[in-house]
Amino acid sequence: MAFSDSTRSEKDEPFILRATKIAVVVVLYWFISISMVFLNNYLLDSKELDAPVFITFFQCVVSVGLCWLMHFLSKLCPGFVDFPSLKFDFRVSREILPLTVVFIGMITFNNLCLKYVGVAFYTVGRSLSTVFNVVLSYFVLKQTTSFYAVLCCGVILGGFWLGVDQESVAGSLSWTGVIFGVIASLCVSLNAIFTKKVMPVVDGNIWKLSYYNNLNASVLFIPLIVVFGEVKSLLEFNRLTHLHFWGMMILGGLFGFAIGYVTGLQIKFTSPLTHNVSGTAKSCAQTVLAVVHSASTKSKLWWTSNMMVLVGSFAYTWVKGFEMKKVQVPPETQTTTSIQKSKEDSAV
């Protein structure tokens, strides 16, 4: 999805104007991404409603609705809104189903990890996706990874274990949250592999893939809500009819949909590599904001664990970006991969 470009060439724009555009887009990406994480944490941390599967299900439903809204707007305003045509195809839905199963695991365990570890430890708790990417690339895709990339993964792994140790020392460690985070990281890596396999089914369009994924997930979540006993929790929830509650739920789904758009904007005005660097810096700011918001005190080793994860992730991004340039990976491939990764890391 994109709003149509101005007829004026970007090369003719003054430096100040272009720099201002980049700054606005980066700030917008940071605002939506960080707000979404805090909003999801607010919804999942409710003492009155224990229904993480339902919350995830509802956000998928909102994403499907927004896809149709953008589809209709693109028909009404073809010169202003650009969005792929949507027409349900059962064959496409069926072929994407294996990816959807992994997708459900990814977003569900992402949200469960956030529910149990909170925003401050979320970056560390969900940090192993890069490590799993390397492991699965070797065993599933038979692709080797450079020594420097493996070294970066070692730094991330060290930061993860140090973070777990410091949370334990502080008495705030949730092994349940850590396990959910590890499973979520594995699902993120599997999701990337399955995404590459099914991309041709949707003609390489990330928005069509998002539509079918969320549509399939919306259907598959319904029996899961029943199995996990969340229907009873919903019926006993005393704010189920409050507009504020549903407003926050819709806002969470809106942010989940918008992250894909602002990610595309950031890549358009910068580059896939710069976007990943921005994402790493955003994670750092997100952690600091979470600690300040909770008014908690963290040890130097706790902060060291976070810095190890962030530095290791940044270094891995730089190394892979350098390797892509050496083999001349097409820019559109890097862009699609970066958008998908950003949506995965944002947990819907």
UniProtKB/TrEMBL annotation:
Q: Does the keyword Electron transport apply?
A: no
Look up the record and report any one GO term of the cellular component aspect.
membrane
Q: Which residues cross the membrane?
A: 15-39, 51-72, 92-112, 147-164, 173-194, 214-231, 243-263
What is the top-level taxon of the source organism?
Answer: Eukaryota
Query: Which residues are in the Sugar phosphate transporter domain?
Result: 21-316
Compartment annotation = Membrane
Family classification = Belongs to the TPT transporter family. SLC35E subfamily.
Protein name according to UniProt:
Sugar phosphate transporter domain-containing protein
Source species taxonomy: Eukaryota, Metazoa, Chordata, Craniata, Vertebrata
